[in-house]
Amino acid sequence: MTEKTTGASYAAAGVDIEAGDRAVELMKEWVKKTQRPEVLGGLGGFAGLFDASALKRYERPLLASATDGVGTKVDIARQLGVYDTIGHDLVAMVMDDIVVCGAEPLFMTDYICVGKVHPERVAAIVKGIAEGCVLAGCALVGGETAEHPGLLGPDDFDVAGAGTGVVEHDRLLGADRIRTGDAVIAMASSGLHSNGYSLVRHVLFDRAGMSLEQEVAELGRTLGEELLEPTRIYSLDCLALTRTAEVHAFSHITGGGLAANLARVIPDHLHATVDRTTWSPGAVFDLVGKAGRVEQPELEKTLNMGVGMMAVVPAESVDVALTALADRGVDAWVAGEILDRGDRTEGATLTGAYAS
After folding, report:
1. How far apart are CA 297 and CA 308, in angstroms?
2. Could you tell me the fold of the domain covering 16-42+53-171?
3. Gene Ontology cellular component (predicted)?
4. Would you say the pTM of this structure is higher than 0.70?
């Protein structure tokens, strides 16, 4: 056995503390852009601080929390070497879940796990998260960058985040508010968002043999550019809508598809119908379906099919709601209605055929 003449060290094990410190310095300017008046202290503490006295203006404040990641979409970012958009996806996945109950996003923390710390790369990821937090109206109060050599390859990484919001108890949105005759308003997605990428990657790469650099005529850009399109962040749009029109519920269309996510906010005695003829899914959904010969039910339970958020509003609030969303640049339309359940077993169903 050869005798080791030098002592072991963290660096020899593959963890570079100095690179981690450099990453923190690079990300500070981006985190600063997300600060709200309630945030105390700066980056680098053991915990992020948020002044809860700001909640005194609430009669009965309810804290809403959520946690999520971005899934295998991160592998697209890794392959393309584009790291400053994936953070938008992370914020959307967390904060658009929080706003569903009517809560205002307050703050978020992130967790970035890498095989090897490349300071500029980590800073680019945080830049995207910070930009997403600005779009969601929340502060990025802290996070963690963990280096896991041996567990992850030098270029591998993953991201996760957790967020907190607040809503007044008597303004809590959800199934209890929904009534027969309510309208279901759909808000357009920016594309695939951040769900279903395991299916998408299998279909487009493994089965169809496509490449990220490939120009796709029907998409009007490369496949990689399409797949990295950031998830739309609806948080501030939804909050603005609640201030303008009466809203009974929101549904964030993520994993499980449109019908399953809408059903989560429909009370047991009611049923939501969504008419496919009211919109045409973007070209990327057709591409995935045709390339993998994926049946429509499988597509619909995996992908958002062009709808990223839904709002349930009283019929008399439809015009005001659509105007408010249009003023904010959100493409929205009436896609369905709320009916008595009758003998239906599902909470929500899709009807008709997509518009061509």
Report:
1. 18
2. 60s Ribosomal Protein L30; Chain: A; (3.30.1330)
3. cytosol
4. yes
The distance between the two most distant Cα atoms of the chain, rounded to a whole number of Å, is 82
Question: Residue 39 pairs with which residues in a beta bridge?
Answer: 50
Per DSSP, helices labelled H in the chain are 17-32, 73-80, 86-98, 119-136, 197-201, 223-227, 235-244, 257-263, 283-291, 296-302, 318-327
* CA contacts within 13 A on the Cβ side of 284: 25
Q: Parse the chain into domains and list their residue ranges.
A: 16-42+53-171, 175-351
What type of residue sits at position 293?
Answer: R
Considering the segment(s) 175-351 as one domain, its CATH architecture is Alpha-Beta Complex (3.90)
Cβ 76 vs Cβ 227: under 8 Å: yes
User: Tokens 């929390």 appear where?
Assistant: 65
User: Tens digits of per-residue pLDDT, 128-166?
Assistant: 999 999 999 999 998 888 889 889 999 999 999 999 999
